[in-house]
Amino acid sequence: MAKKADGRSAGRADRGTKGSTPVGLGEAPDAEAVVQGPTATKKATKPAKAAKAAKPAKGDKPAKAAKGDKSPKPAKLDKAAKAAKGDKPAKPAKLDKAARAAKAERVDEAAKAAKKAAKKAAKVLEAEREAQADLAKAAKKAAKKADRKAAAALEAAAERVAAEAAKAAKALAKQTEAERAIAEAPAADPEPAVGPAVHLVADPADDPAPDAEPAVDPTAPTAVEPGPAEQRPEPAPPRLRVLVEVPADKYAPPADVPSVRAALRLPGGPVDLAAIDPRATPSFAGDKADALADIGAMGPRLAELQERLYAQAVAGGARRRVLLVVQGMDTSGKGGTVKHVIGQFNPSGCHIHAFKAPTEDELAHPFLWRVRAQVPGPGLIGVFDRSHYEDVLIARVRDLVPRQVWSRRYATINRFEQSLAKDEVTVVKVFLHISPEEQKERLLARLDNPDKHWKFNPADIDERSVWPDYRTAYEAALEKCDGDAAPWYVVPADRKWYRNWAISRLLLEHLTELDPRYPAGDFDVEAERKRLLDA
């Protein structure tokens, strides 16, 4: 019993030492139960040894010592129990104070850490602000540097533009020298004498009244079609003027040469294509080299007028445009006209369409339905390679429609072209007049050159068999559809170089008459320039 009691006391003393539960005086009865055993007298005489037995590190040794030693006195039992229980625990009030101190210490440390973090964040923010300021300064310097570069670039561009303008002005002055000579020429010049190698041109100043005599005397004997070196007698009507071709080394445009428009336009009334020489060169006294040089000189002027026409429509809202209609027999040069004449323009400002045999869908509509869809838009130069006139040419010659159908189409075409003129479309209709002999030579050239076989069509030979019928059909179309809204111009086409020169000149005269202008800007130029440089 004493051994078990000592062990229990030791265990409680151990717990008291660790401070898990405060130990009080209420444990004294357990100590008294120990001294009430069979050997109570002996154990009570030595209480100090019993206190030694309470050490937990000695194990069972405290129990053995308790058997041999005298029991402590009852008066001193409480002191032994208190010693066995270990140190006195701290009072609850002191524990709360320590906890509050520890908590306050932790709060202070947290506050110090927060202050330290705030200072660090402030330093980082200040560093970012300094970096932004540096970047702003660098950006301003770069902007100033860029402004200087931009200003230098603008100055260089201005110098280039000025040089190009001077060059263009010089070329234009040289190009229009002949035109100025014509404009400044006296009103009445003596006519040149009739000599070898002459051709006829029309003089609009001598146009007779509508009821006057025809331009060609119908009683005159039929003359053989002259060749390039044959002499043609001077006609009696005053509206015709005879000009002499001069050698190329003495070429200078005569001051009294009428415009190509006046020279190539039909006089009105019945048309006789057999009376017009396909090798003639109206309004031109030079040769091929002169024509090519003049075409090259016209090129920049044509391109400039086209750009003005386009600019007027795009930026100015104008509706003016030009439509060149090219008709002629096979091999007359319709494709060549597109290549050599229209090639002088900016292709982005042109609308070119070649009319072929109508499709089933097109045949299901009126004959002008497909033509209306190809009329050029405002600001454009349109070209029709063949046109609505095929519906009164091949349709008539090959009996594709009854006579009562194609015969009504002339009036329909006139109304259509008048509507185009009202819509500010300048229509320039050109008939390429070629001789059957020249056509034969060109067809043979295609057959003899394998590279040209793709252009040959066996049907072209079949069409030659009805050449007189086609001539009659063309004469009717030229006569019935030759109005002021859309006049016809007959261009002799046996000489390709003259064909190209004449059509180029026709377009130049029409565009010059239109006189398109660059539209003015609707903004403050100086303000926009400053805004651009400051950006």
TrEMBL record:
The keyword Membrane does not apply. Residues 113-122 have a biased composition (Basic residues). One of its GO terms (molecular function) is phosphotransferase activity, phosphate group as acceptor. Gene3D superfamilies: P-loop containing nucleotide triphosphate hydrolases. Residues 37-56, 183-197, 212-230 have a biased composition (Low complexity). Residues 301-513 form the Polyphosphate kinase-2-related domain. Residues 1-149, 181-238 are annotated as: Disordered. Keywords: Transferase. InterPro entries: P-loop_NTPase (IPR027417), PPK2-rel_1 (IPR022300), PPK2-related (IPR022488). It comes from the Bacteria. Residues 1-17, 57-112, 123-132 have a biased composition (Basic and acidic residues). GO terms for biological process: polyphosphate metabolic process. This is Polyphosphate--nucleotide phosphotransferase. It comes from Embleya hyalina.
